[in-house]
Amino acid sequence: MASRPTRFIIVDEATIQDSKDEPDLPRSRKRPRTEDEPPEPSSSKRKATPDAETEGTAGRASLRADFDGTEILIHDPDYYFGDDPEADCFIRVEKILFKVHSKLLFMSKLMETRITGRPEPATGQDPLELFGVSVIEFRSLMWARYATEEDAKDQPRALEDLERLLSLATITKNLDFDRLHDWTLESMHRAFSSDASLTDSCSSAVLRRVIEVATQFKAQDLLDAAVSKWCDRIRRKESPAVPAILAADAHKIERLGGIAYYAHLLETIEQATPSTSTGPLRILADPKLGTKQLTRLLSGHLALVNFSERFKRRAPKLECGEGCSAEAHRACSLIWNERWRAATGSPKVLALCSADIIGLVGEMNEHLSGDGELTEGLTKACRCTGLLQLKQSLTDTQIQLPQYFLGCLSPPPGPHYL
User: Fold this and answer.
1) Angle at CA 36, nearest 5°, toward 32 and 42?
2) Is 293 exposed, middle or buried (CB count within 10 Å of its CB: 0-12, 13-18, 19+)?
3) Minimal CB count within 10 Å: which of 43, 272, 405, 411?
4) Contact by Cβ (8 Å): 336, 378
5) 337-387 tens-digit pLDDT
6) pTM for the full predicted model
7) Which residues of 33-64 are buried (b: 16+ CB within 10 A; e: fewer)?
């Protein structure tokens, strides 16, 4: 067998050892799991260390290789149990060395085969090397396998917990920790379905990462919950629209794209200033958006303004309410159309941006709901029917937003184009 290059271990700032002579170091403050299963972390007690919250960033700064080709491996600050004889598995990820309990990895048949199938057990000089796995991901796996039941309860509790679960979702899928993978996705779904304080603290980058993970692993429940949360935050103007546009286009999520394009368009119009008091608006394009996305914005603006003009011009047909006679309903329809025209000329409606169709439908609904002449002139049944129609129109308009931002569609080929 060809000899391997000498590896050295950084013990502290003043000590570098040959891995062949490495002593048992008094680093561990944790005890191993006492259970092989279940998918959630075990009940063995784990004590937190100061380094646990920093993901070992201090070690990363010391990564280097000597000029003679030898390698320097660094003990992981949290998961190198040098003083525990039962920690029998040496694992290398990038240039970080872990010494952990192999039985905790046997939840995965893939890892069990790789550990037990070696001609000789892994050592500090000849560790089991994992490729395609990052140090952060492997630390998240070790957290899950060494965590106590109390640690695992109600996860994620904070933003750093959510970020760890995102890493955990990837490595558990790649290394076939199937039950732990399912637990991870379920925990994130529960958070996005119920924990508003946590999900409202997520940045756009974290929300995009959640969507990437949910899409990659076909976690539809998590995807729906994350998209709903992001859409709500955009409606409340608590999240910028451009990152959502990029995520929606990348993963073909129409619902997110619709509200994101709509919000960005209104924001762009609001921030634009005319060159003169009577001149055209000068709209600044966001540099992160490409030509296709800008085309969608402009074609969307045209479609929204067109809807707005048609909506105001003609009142929706008033359906006959229960118990209203044909003759009485003709009178109801006349008053309905009259009050509709009056509502379109109200100061609040006139003040709306022409592209703000959700604001328009909502304001028309609110205005007519409080219209005294409508209340007196229509039968109760017809008035309720008309207002319910408007309420449904608002819901339909919100659902149909993506259809306004399809861009410029090419006509189908036909004889007249030849």
Assistant:
1) 55
2) buried
3) 411
4) yes
5) 999 999 999 999 999 999 999 999 999 999 999 999 999 999 999 999 999
6) 0.79
7) beeeeebbbbebebeeeeebeebbeebeeeee
Measured distance CA(378)–CA(329) in Å, rounded: 8
- CA-closest candidate to residue 368, choices 409, 320, 315, 417: 315
Structure tokens at 186: 């379920």
Q: At what angle do helices 357-369 and 326-344 cross, to 10 degrees?
A: 120
Of residues 89, 82, 101, 125, the one with CA closest to residue 33: 101
Which of the residues in the chain have pLDDT under 70? 1-70, 274-277, 412-418
The number of residues making up the chain comes to 418
Q: First-to-last CA distance in the chain?
A: 71
How far is 54 from 48, CA to CA, in rounded Å?
A: 12
Residue 394 has a pLDDT of 94
Give 224-249 pLDDT, tens digit per residue. 999 999 999 999 999 999 999 999 99
In sequence order, what are the beta bridge partners of 90?
Answer: 99
Nearest to 293 by CA among 407, 179, 161: 407
pLDDT score for 35: 43
Residue keyed to tokens 């955990």: 168
* Residue 238 CA: distances (Å) to CA of 16, 146, 200, 288: 50, 37, 9, 19
Residues 6+ apart with CB under 8 A from 321: 329, 332, 379, 380, 381, 382, 383, 384, 385
Helix/strand/coil percent split, the chain, to 5: 55, 10, 35
Phi, psi angles (nearest 5°) of residue 24: -80, 120
Beta-strand pair 71-80/7-12: parallel
pLDDT of residue 36: 44
| pLDDT for 9 | 57
154: left (phi > 0), else alpha (psi -120 to 50), else beta? left
Which distant-in-sequence residues (6+ apart) come within 8 Å of 24 by Cβ? Answer: 82, 83, 85
